[in-house]
């Protein structure tokens, strides 16, 4: 697939002081990595980016949900949305560090909730992401199973996380945010051999 230019180019340095300050807030403290292309794209609308940051930072920095379980929701949601950019950033930055195996990471893209890579609890998270993606709601049967394992505050957080990453998927897909060179790429479908 030929490379194409982003529809909304990310801001490039040197940054205006307000943009520099906002980008510093979006990136982890002391991180030497260039601000993500997503953040530099959002900075095109600095006011909106500033209003978005608290929710995104709260989901990642002050979660009530186990971070590994959060990543199952994020990986599956972004994969369902075809948002390889965000999926790939999360694989490297969070999925692998929080213990998702290679088979589980692959299953977020190419598997189903009954994939052998998943535990019983993980299967419920994948089903949650799938049902929210398909219908913007959750069936009574699934809700009963979720409610038996997670308290209501964590269930709200899981639903908000799925919704937030669907929104982020919209942004990266529509703006055409170019992939970070260090981020993971979607795995090839399991029935197709990978190119070497």
Number of domains: 2
Strand content: under 5%
Mean pLDDT across all amino acids: 94
- The CATH superfamily of the largest domain appears as AhpD-like
Number of helices: 9
- What gyration radius follows from the Cα positions, in whole Å? 17 Å
Account of the 3D structure:
The chain folds into 2 domains: 10-62, no CATH class; 65-196, AhpD-like. The mean pLDDT is 94. The protein contains 9 helices and no strands. It has helices spanning 17-26, 37-42, 46-61, 67-80, 84-95, 102-110, 120-135, 140-147, 152-175.
Topology:
Elements: H1 17-26, H2 37-42, H3 46-61, H4 67-80, H5 84-95, H6 102-110, H7 120-135, H8 140-147, H9 152-175
Features:
single chain; globular; 9 helices; mainly alpha; 2 domains; AhpD-like; 196 residues
Short description:
This protein has 196 residues and is mainly α. It has helices at residues 17-26, 37-42, 46-61, 67-80, 84-95, 102-110, 120-135, 140-147, 152-175.
